[in-house]
Amino acid sequence: MQVPPKHPILGDPRIAGLVALTAAALKPPRGRTRIAAALLLGFMCHSLFAAAVLAMIAAMFVGMSRSFGTLAWPWAAIANAFLILQFPLIHSLLLTRRGEHTLARAVPGPHGTTLATTTYAIVASVQLLALFALWTPSGIVWWRAEGVAFWVVSAAYAASWLLLLKASFDAGAEVQTGALGWMSLLARIRPVFPDMPTRGLFRLIRQPIYVAFALTLWTVPVWTPDQLAVAISFTLYCLLAPRLKEKRFAKRYRDRFRHYREQVPYALPRLGPAKIRPHIDATKSHGDRGAAS
């Protein structure tokens, strides 16, 4: 008996997982309260996520020179420092074992564990929205791109965000956006996390999300002391935070991650075609919220 070939798109586990999750969510079992809660949290999650991303893009495009913060100095400096620090600290703490338990208990009732990824995305979105919307600008502008330079830098800025979008898709869009939690609750199924990412940009480097995010920090058309403070702070975070993630991967995936780490560089791609052993690229059902973070 001849086995039909896999569809070139649906055979991709990054897409297959999304399709399966969406199909299950479109036919939810009965349960008005569960369905209403899932849809409400989904709307909240994606609305905040979109607002946070738009706030980031807009605020950094003008070098953090415009925002809604209006504190007087030097209180503004203290508030701005807090806004910078609160994201990496809370973001990293929630990825620890204690943080996982906190997320599981954040939503009252029996569905806290199922909704953990959605809760995590909501918290991260609120943090980023607070940072970029409540920042108090210094009012100092060092450099503003004009003419051809403006278009070149703006194109680089847009490309950096597209690269971040691609890296997020390669890591598992359902986890990155928080959809996994509320859609699993809607379908009344156990959340199935994406496997250890090795496809797409993850074939070139192990940390494409952090690298792409760092690029968005340094390709802006307006430079101010505010933008420099944000760029330096979050670049340091992008260099250090993945070390913690890789420790979790080493414990969870053991030899698979060890072989992957030996073949794929950390942040700078090697010259020449990337080669990953087939057994490392195999799809499994293991998952980890930090896999995409």
How is the quaternary structure best described? single chain
Number of helices: 10
* Overall body shape: globular
Strand order of the largest sheet: 1-2
Q: What gyration radius follows from the Cα positions, in whole Å?
A: 20 Å
Order of helices and strands: HHHHHEHHHEHH
Structural class comes to mainly alpha
Termini separation (Å)? 43 Å
Overall mean pLDDT stands at 88
Counted up, domains total 1
Number of strands: 2
- The percent of residues in helical segments reads 55-70%
Q: Can you summarize the main beta sheet?
A: 2 strands, antiparallel
Strand content: under 5%
Low-confidence stretches: 1-5, 281-292
Question: Could you please describe the fold and organization of this structure?
Answer:
Helix 2 runs antiparallel to helix 7, helix 5 runs antiparallel to helix 7 and helix 6 packs antiparallel against helix 8. Helices cover 61% and strands 1% of the residues. The relative contact order is 0.15. With 293 residues, the chain is an all-alpha fold. The protein has one domain (13-279).
